[in-house]
């Protein structure tokens, strides 16, 4: 089925419902042995040619369903529970996830030490083996610190790194470009996923900067877009090759509409609970069965919403505990869920037959 003929249908039925969600309120390939090699650098969007590729011709390096994994702690939150982390990583790898992001926002990276993160990388890599790829949350608002973490990820033979837009120091766009370029080039054989989330970082990486990085740096192969801006997503997609630069929704509720705009998949929190269903939804969409994909999306739309009723990962860890996972609490300054959220999540999980009634 020609998906380009269905775009109007997709947007008509899917996109309008997302403008009420919290997240929205708040090239020709050169010859190379590297799978991410792309065309030479260009200067600005006004001088770029739109990619002629209308569909991915090779599997994305990180797959289509990526789980941003929570970090399990002991009951008092003082120590990481590496045994539960190992069990959870193996479970996710067996239930739809193509890759796991370890030590990202959902993994409470701000309150993890680097020593804890490195041990998590090791444990999770051993747990999943070849079934699933491990992406290290190696970002920082210090370029040198991110470089050091990236070197460690390469030494541990991980599959890639996630690099977030620098937070708090609010660099200009040229600073963002130089930051990510220097990090990526410190380990040129290690794939990099950019992470744009203005709501947490206080700054947006604009489309032009993302496109420059995608075209200038061979191993920058993907972006997680969590800006909630369809127009920006489209601008990046128009000017980057779909077969070598992959764009992921940063919000489960946007997975399906962004697939219609040339997205690759999602960096998901809901996949802790419905990984196989999300995998199926993406497969159905790509096979042309848009109606069936929409049915899965609508079935779980309240899960997508309620997992962000409080700051992530408070709801996700609460729901996992309800399902018997000993993931412990969040570390301060994140708090326990409110009684109202606990009640809401309990009822939701029961309604979805994820929790026994």
Largest beta sheet: strand ordering: 1-2-3-4-5-6-7-8
Strand content: 5-15%
* N-C termini distance: 41 Å
Per the principal axes of the C-alpha atoms, what is the gross shape?
A: globular
Mean pLDDT across all residues, rounded?
88
How many distinct beta strands? 8
Number of helices: 15
Give, in order, the helices and strands.
Answer: HHEHEHEHEHEHHEHEHEHHHHH
Q: Helical amount among residues, as a percent range? A: 40-55%
Q: Poorly predicted ranges (pLDDT <50, ≥5 residues)?
A: 1-43, 46-56
Largest sheet, in brief, is: 8 strands, parallel, barrel
A few lines on this structure:
The chain has 357 residues and is α/β, with parallel strands linked by helices.
């Amino acid at each position: 089925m020609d998906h380009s003929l269905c775009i109007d249908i997709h947007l008509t039925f899917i996109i309008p419902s997302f403008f009420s969600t919290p997240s929205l309120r708040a090239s020709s390939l050169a010859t190379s042995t590297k799978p991410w090699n792309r065309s030479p650098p260009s200067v600005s969007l006004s001088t770029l040619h739109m990619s002629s590729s209308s569909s991915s011709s090779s599997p994305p390096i990180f797959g289509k369903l990526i789980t941003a994994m929570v970090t399990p702690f002991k009951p008092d939150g003082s120590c990481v529970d590496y045994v539960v982390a190992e069990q959870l990583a193996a479970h996710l790898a067996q239930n739809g996830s193509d890759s796991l992001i370890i030590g990202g926002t959902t993994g409470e990276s701000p309150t993890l030490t680097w020593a804890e993160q490195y041990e998590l990388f090791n444990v999770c890599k051993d747990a999943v083996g070849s079934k699933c790829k491990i992406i290290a949350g190696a970002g920082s608002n210090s370029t040198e610190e991110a470089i050091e973490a990236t070197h460690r990820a390469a030494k541990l033979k991980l599959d890639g790194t996630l690099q977030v837009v620098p937070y708090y120091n609010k660099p200009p766009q040229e600073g963002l470009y130089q930051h990510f370029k220097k990090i990526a080039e410190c380990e040129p054989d290690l794939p990099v996923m950019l992470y744009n989330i203005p709501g947490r970082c206080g700054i947006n990486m604009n489309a032009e900067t993302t496109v420059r990085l995608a075209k200038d740096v061979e191993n920058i192969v993907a972006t997680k877009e969590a800006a909630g801006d369809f127009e920006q997503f489209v601008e990046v997609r128009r000017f980057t090759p779909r077969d070598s630069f992959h764009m992921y929704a940063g919000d489960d509720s946007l997975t399906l509409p962004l697939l219609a705009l040339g997205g690759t998949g999602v960096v998901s929190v809901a996949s802790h609970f419905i990984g196989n269903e999300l995998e199926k939804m993406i497969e159905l969409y790509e096979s042309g069965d848009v109606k069936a994909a929409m049915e899965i999306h609508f079935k779980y739309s309240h899960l997508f919403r309620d997992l962000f009723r409080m700051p992530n990962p408070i709801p996700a860890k609460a729901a996992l505990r309800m399902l018997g996972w000993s993931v412990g609490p969040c570390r301060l300054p994140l708090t326990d869920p409110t009684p109202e959220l606990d009640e809401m999540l309990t009822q939701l999980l029961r309604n979805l037959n994820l929790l026994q009634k």
